[in-house]
Amino acid sequence: MIRRVLLALVAGIVVAVLLEMVTVTPRSIIDFTAFYCAGQVIRDQGDPYRAQPLGACEAKLGSEGIYGVRGVVMPAPLPPYALAPFAALASLPYGRALVIWRLLLLAAITATIVALRKVAKLSWPTVALALLIIDVLMNIPPGQPMPIVVAATAIGAWALTRGSDRLAGAVTCLTMVEPHIGLPACLSLYLYRPAARASLLWGSMIAAALSVIVMPASANIEYLTKVLPHHAASEIPWFLQVSLTHVLYVLGASDQASLAAGSVSYVAMLSFAMLTAPRAATSLGVPGLLIALPAAAAVLGGTFIHLTQVAAAIPAALILAGREETSISRLGGAACVLLVLPGLWVGIPGIVFIAAGVAALLTALLLRPPRVVSTAIAIAVLAGGLALHGLHPIKTEAGRGLAVTPARASALAEDSWGRFVRAEDPGIPEHRLELLAAVPTWAGLGLLCGAAALGAFAGVRGKAKAEAAIPDPCGG
After folding, report:
1. What is the pLDDT along the chain (476 residues), one digit of tens a residue?
2. How distant, in Å, are the alpha carbons of 129, 158, 342, 349 from that of 387?
3. Of the candidates 180, 155, 169, 204, which has an alpha carbon nearest to the alpha carbon of residue 273?
4. Beta pairing partners, 412
5. Contact 170, 156 (CB under 8 A)
6. Sign of the Cα pseudo-torsion (222, 171, 331, 282, in order)
7. 292-330 as b/e, with b when 16 or more CB fall inside 10 Å?
8. d(CA 33, CA 35)
């Protein structure tokens, strides 16, 4: 019965994705539109991080502007080497480039399913369900590059499992498309798998070469010193954020205090991952955790975490859930279920129904409770999602023809975007209830880190006890 439901669900999603691919407009895929326009600016030897001519390209492709608001410039805050492929795609007409990008993302998701099925030792429907909402439904429509990051994480973990450290190093370099997620994964691999270091160093040199080829040195420096901090600051109030910085701001902290706390939490989670990943990988016999766990830890807390980026935690959760029936695997399974309950319920009407069904099926597949428990979870998700839906008032959807004051051409695109975000979210008390929608996501990330820590340090204690039980050959 469950298999038939899964096949019907997968078939429906495939049809929905294909229909969306042929009916999409530039206004509905704002991320790819921004990246494509950044590629055009690079080809014209301009600065893709400035408001113009990036904004002019976006306005041409989507005549009404982002979310129907004229004058808003959507930034393209990827590092120079990650924008290089979009410079190549920009040589094609927009529609053709979009199809190629969508097919690449779908191929990445397929590769993720294949790799995780082998590493986690779970059935492909289980893996596909875990990826369905965040990695598929939330990343493919806007054209986010996260499926590539998740695929690199999964394939790197699979390569480590096979003992192919060089391949793991080469593939893990692709996670640096999102530097705050890729850096912990690459650092962990570099520290604990010496055989992968050459591939990581070669990947770094290739990225550096691409960066200076596509952009002048001044633009590369600008990205590190101006774009990254300005982009984090521009989205502090944005209700699509799940970072610690956003939470603290909504609870009343200042911009500076929120950013500082988010930065400290990122360093803390990086330290946690560097300490826990090698121990968990050894004690659980899963080398792939050296890559998957740091990538997952990077999206808990921080200064800039979109819900779509939480997809980076799915590989680690599935790997832990696929272990032998223990408290660790149960915690990993519970984390998987919680991570498919997106806080974005407040913005997408139909996704709560999909989330309820996926949560029930994943609960049945990973935790194997009585059927009444899976049913109760589905009902709870549905009720909670419907209660939270529409909590955030999207003012820009109600009226068309709205506009914001155009940014200076030489200003960073974040200047325009930040003013739009502040106009959309002028106050904070009315948004505090929205944090409830993200509680399942944070709980899932917390359970995932707890399961990893339990595996790491329980394994260390068990080893110490076993060694203590061995008679001392030098004793009487």
Report:
1. 555 665 565 555 555 555 555 455 444 577 899 999 999 999 999 999 999 899 889 888 865 556 666 678 889 999 999 999 999 999 999 989 998 998 999 999 999 999 999 999 999 889 998 998 888 888 888 889 999 999 999 999 999 999 999 999 999 999 999 999 999 999 999 999 999 999 999 999 999 999 999 999 999 999 999 999 999 999 898 877 899 999 999 888 999 999 999 999 999 999 999 999 999 999 999 999 999 999 999 999 999 998 889 999 999 999 999 988 789 999 999 999 999 887 655 556 677 888 888 888 899 999 988 888 888 888 888 888 777 765 655 544 434 445 566 667 788 999 988 888 887 665 555 567 778 888 899 999 999 999 999 999 875 444 444 443 333 333 33
2. 24, 40, 14, 11
3. 180
4. 50
5. no
6. negative
7. bbbbbbbbbbbbbbbbbbbbbbbbbbbbbbbbeeeebbb
8. 6
Q: Which residues contact 163 (CB under 8 A, 6 or more apart)?
A: none
d(CA 184, CA 153): 11
Q: What are the backbone dihedrals phi and psi of residue 71, each rounded to the nearest 5 degrees, phi first?
A: 90, -5
3-state class (DSSP) for residue 306? strand
Which residue in this structure is represented by tokens 């990122």?
A: 266
How many beta carbons lie within 10 A of that of residue 15, not counting itself?
10
> What gap in Å lies between CA 340 and CA 454, rounded to an integer?
23
Residue given tokens 């880190």 in the structure block: 449
Residues 6 or more apart whose CB falls under 8 angstroms from that of 60 comprise none
Reported residue count of the chain is 476
Tokens of 126: 């289980």
Q: 452: how many CB neighbours lie within 10 A of its CB?
A: 31
Distances (CA, A) of 370 to 198, 335, 340, 360: 50, 19, 20, 11
Instruction: Kindly state the helix (H) or strand (E) to which residue 450 belongs, with its residue range.
Output: helix 439-469
User: Which residues lie closer than 8 Å to 207 by C-beta, 6 or more apart?
Assistant: 79, 81, 173, 176
CB 344 within 8 Å of CB 307: yes
- First-to-last alpha carbon distance for the chain, in angstroms, is 64
Report DSSP letters for 184-200, one per residue. Answer: HHHHHHHHH-GGGHHHH
Single-letter residue type at 123: S
HSE-CB for 372 with a 13 A CA cutoff: 0
Rounded-to-integer distance, Cα 273 and Cα 269, Å? 6
Output the CA angle 305-73-391, nearest 5 degrees. 50
Tell me how far apart the alpha carbons of residues 53 and 47 are, in angstroms, rounded to a whole number.
8
